[in-house]
Amino acid sequence: MARRGLLIILSSPSGAGKSTLAKRLMVWDETLRFSVSSTTRAPREGEVDGKDYFFVTVEDFQRQVADQGMLEHARVFENYYGSPIAPVQTAVEAGRDVLFDIDWQGAQQISNSVMRDNVLSIFILPPSIPELRRRLEGRGQDSAEVIEKRMQKSWDEISHWDGYDYVLVNDDLDATEEKLKTIISAERMRRAQQPDLLTTVRRLQDEFEDRA
Ligand code: ADP
Ligand code: 5GP
Fold first, then answer.
1. Is 196 helix (H, G, I), strand (E, B) or coil?
2. Could you tell me the distance, in angstroms and rounded to a whole number, from the CA of residue 17 to the centre of ligand 1?
3. Binned average pLDDT, 10 residues per bin, the chain of 212 residues
4. For the purposes of burial, counting CB atoms within 10 Å of the CB of 192, is it exposed (0-12), middle (13-18) or buried (19 or more)?
5. How far is the centre of ligand 2, averaged over its atoms, from the C-alpha of 182 (Å)?
6. Is the C-beta atom of 16 inside 6 A of ligand 1?
7. pTM of the predicted protein model
8. Measured in whole angstroms, how far is the alpha carbon of residue 139 from the centre of its chain?
9. CA dist., res. 13 & res. 153, Å (int)
10. Which atom belonging to ligand 1 lies closest to the Cα atom of 23?
């Protein structure tokens, strides 16, 4: 029996570093699948359609939701975001872990879905609010107005920190990356994640009973 993949959810207030960490995890383990979300927001400079997001119209987004094509979806910062379900199902059934960069609303929906037994949710906190602002400004991809909106919404996201399995403070980037790898490696070794264990234990039992 193949292991079912984990649904690894990363959430944080915008600017805390989850996309950067997600990219590092994808380099660390090329068997991980990134769940490319659909969004109605405009692409940022350098973002690639189909890789960072599927950039879609509001009509297309709503059609996908109506067709039951989303595992979860939410309105964030006046735009719609959602995780297409088909690639997630294919990956998980093939034993592949899927990485999500989504907000608390999406995390909550997936954690309450039929796939809840395979969820691993991790919340990333910034070390301080001034540092969060510095990171949003330093990213240099949003207007002053958009940055202000994201700062105003940051507490709304942070206030859901206690709904997650793990919470990390992303102070030093390398240290946070290492902690994430440790968490994922350990979660993969949970008994429920190792269906082949039963075969091993049965063999051990046979050997035990046959021993001279
Ligand atoms: P999010 O995906 O959570 O919105 P990003 O990954 O885009 O955040 O990170 C926002 C900015 O902060 C980026 O410029 C990124 O390089 C930087 N950053 C991320 N983590 C750290 C860290 N630990 N220390 C300093 N800068 C960081
Ligand atoms: P950004 O516009 O900065 O890429 O993302 C804004 C917020 O939307 C982030 O908190 C991000 O995690 C979240 N987000 C991205 N994709 C999805 C998604 O598919 N579903 C949900 N619920 N949130 C998402």
1. coil
2. 3
3. 87 96 97 97 92 96 97 94 96 95 97 93 98 94 90 96 98 98 96 90 95 76
4. exposed
5. 24
6. yes
7. 0.94
8. 20
9. 8
10. 6
